[in-house]
Amino acid sequence: MSEALLDVEHVTMRFGGLFAVNDLSFSARPQEITAVIGPNGAGKTTLFNCITGFYKPQVGRITLNHPSGPLLLERLDDYTITRKAGVARTFQNIRLFARMSVLENLIVAQHTRLMAASAFSLAGLLGLSRYAQAEAQAVERARHWLDKVGLTAFADEEAGSLPYGHQRRLEIARAMCTGPVLLCLDEPAAGLNPRESAELNRLLLDIRAENGIGLLLIEHDMSVVMEISDHIVVLDYGRKIAEGAPTAIKADPAVIRAYLGEPDEEEAG
Amino acid sequence: MEYFLQQLINGLTLGAIYGLVALGYTMVYGVLGMINFAHGTIYMVGAFISLITFLAATTVLGTSVPLALVLTLFAAMGLTALWGWSVERVAYRPLRAAPRLAPLISAIGVSIVLQNFVAQAQGARAKPLPPVFRGGVTLMDSGDFVVSLSWMQMVIMALTLGLMAAFTWVITRTALGRAQRACEQDMKMASLLGIDVDRVISTTFVIGAGLAGVAGMMVTLYYGVIDFYIGFLAGIKAFTAAVLGGIGSLPGAMLGGLLIGLIEAFWSAYFSIEYKDVATFSILVAVLVFRPTGLLGQPDVEKI
Predict the structure, then answer these.
(1) Has the ipTM of the complex gone over 0.90?
(2) Angle (nearest 5°) at CA B16 between B103 and B69
(3) Suppose A131 and one of A47, A123, A210, B192 were both cysteines; which one would form an S-S bond, judging by CB atoms 3.0 to 4.6 Å apart?
(4) Cα(A95)–Cα(A190) distance, integer angstroms
(5) Residues 169-188 of B with CB under 8 A from A
């Protein structure tokens, strides 16, 4: 078993009296797909918001074991979580730059590298070749991901005009263009039809195999979760109620209870 | 006809100046959704920096006029940009998370502070500058009326066109421009892609103030008289230009600026000069009644 990529330790996030996430600990390993599942309101998205810096958890620690050394995510500013730690994220409700072209959406995700190469645009203003080179590389990388998600034909369309399924795939491509070590996907299969959802499975497995990064996945669609996850964490009311391989989770009585509800005592008796 | 042509030239010159100031309003609105009411005052500061630099260069250093102009251009752009940066850093950034009204009030405060600072430091009386270069080319001479395009007007239009071209290139083609457009649409998402949003906002203020500085220099050289209060009306008019063109839209700001300049010039020429501001703002109201998002603005369609 390799070292964990992401270590979540005793994380608690409280809103007033509500414990959205309560003393949660788990790890995600590199080159694995870790799924976080649970009924609505179980704290899955709150957990994502803690990992990507939207919220600072009141208790606990989130460590990302970056190739260049461990980083405490809750101590980083929002944009450095992507820049330094290499955490990328997609959203349940798609957040593309709707009025930019598909290609531009992918190039803007490579901003950090471009700015460094362009000496904060000064070199770009002066037309230095180093900047032109970096720009060409950015376009190439963008084209690579367009090809991967099958959107090459739409490169110059406005992102907001794409059909829903395409937008989902574009958002994943954009996240990958930041060059992440951990990709967090918030319900990537929501609103997809079975064919699109099968394509998504292939894409995610492909990303895992080719890029060697870790994937963290929130998902309701069990066909996606059971088919591609290596490891599943089940949340209910902010607490972890089970953790393990897909087959074990399917048979876990606590999980079945959380999803189907407790059998009525009187009826049972 | 000759009279019309002359007013067209005058109106376009004035419009170019308004347009440059309007860009600053529209850029800041685009990124922060906030009206930077101190922007007109920044333009006034630019005018004073230009006046001081130009006089210092020509009298103290004794440089030739063209060299003094180049120096003034860089000083006006650079120092005014620095003012813009400081204002954002001191008065707006600490209020980023505050309700929307707070930075608005802070902006009005900054504007009053700057106005009074300049009035105290430079004196409240109007400051004249002798005409830098006279003359121009005669375009048409019908005997009783001469249509001329002065050198100054040519400089203003050429400089404005050059700045617009450079600016459009930065916004559409560079990493900085892309980041700016990304922040305009979704700041939180931009930061999740590794974009330093605070830096993008600073740059926006720096660019906007730099353009206003150039506009301040132009107005100083063109009219030859400035005082600490010129920022107020020019600011309101440039803001109007931004709204007329569609606030948030960069070509809109330029178009709005030109339109306001033309309306003023033609109204003064054919109707009455006293009522030129009344006319300008009446047309603004009329346009907004029929096109609430301005001429080139995008309608904000809310998805339900």
Answers:
(1) no
(2) 95
(3) A123
(4) 14
(5) 170, 173-176, 178-179, 181-182, 185-186, 188
CA distance B188 to chain A (A): 9
- Candidate from B178, B192, B194 with C-beta closest to A104: B178
Once rounded to an integer, what is the mean pLDDT over residues B110-115? 92
Is there a contact between A10 and A21 (Cβ–Cβ < 8 Å)? no
All domains in chain B, ordered by first residue: 2-290 (1.10.3470)
pLDDT digits (tens, 9 = 90+) for A175-186: 999 888 899 999
For residue A69, what is the enclosing H or E element? strand A69-72
- Would you list the DSSP string of A9-58? EEEEEEETTEEEEEEEEEEE-TTSEEEEE-STTSSHHHHHHHHTTSS--S
Angle, helices B151-173 vs B175-185, to 10°: value is 70
Residue recorded with tokens 């948030």: B248
Rounded Cα gap, residues B142 and B82, in angstroms: 48
Residues 164-183 of A with CB under 8 A from B: 174, 178
- Rounded Cα–Cα distance for residues B48 and B82 (Å): 14
- Indicate which of A55, A73, A111 best probes the interface with B, i.e. most B CBs within 10 Å of its own CB: A111
CA angle B222, B126, B277 (to 5 degrees): 65
In Å, how far is B31's CA from the nearest CA of chain A? 14
pLDDT at B19: 92
Which helix H or strand E contains B148, and what residues bound it?
Answer: strand B146-150
Q: How do residues B248-273 score in pLDDT, each as one tens digit? A: 888 889 999 999 999 989 888 888 88
Q: Tell me which of A260 and A81 has the higher pLDDT.
A: A81
Residue B304: burial class (beta carbons within 10 Å; 0-12, 13-18, 19+): exposed
Looking at per-residue pLDDT, the higher value among B78 and A250 belongs to B78
Residue B128, pLDDT score = 85
| Res B148 pLDDT > 50 | yes
Domains contained in chain A, CATH given: 6-86+180-268 (3.40.50.300), 97-163 (no CATH)
Residue A269 confidence (pLDDT) above 50: no
Please say if the pLDDT value at position B286 is more than 60.
yes
B249 and B272 in contact (C-beta within 8 Å)?
no
Q: Which of B192, B195, B196, B300 to probe the A interface (max A CBs under 10 A)?
A: B192
How many CA atoms are closer than 13 Å to the CA of A193, on its beta-carbon side?
Answer: 4
Residue type, position A17, single letter: G
Q: What's the CA gap between A88 and A216, in Å, rounded?
A: 10
User: B149-188 pLDDT, tens per residue?
Assistant: 888 888 899 999 999 888 888 888 888 888 988 998 888 8
What is the C-alpha separation between B233 and B281, in angstroms, rounded? 12
What the block records as the tokens of B129 is 């500058």
B174: left (phi over 0), alpha (psi -120 to 50) or beta: beta
Evaluated on CA atoms B146, B151, B156, B162, the torsion sign reads positive
Q: Can you give the pTM of this predicted structure?
A: 0.85
End-to-end distance of chain B based on CA atoms, in angstroms? 53
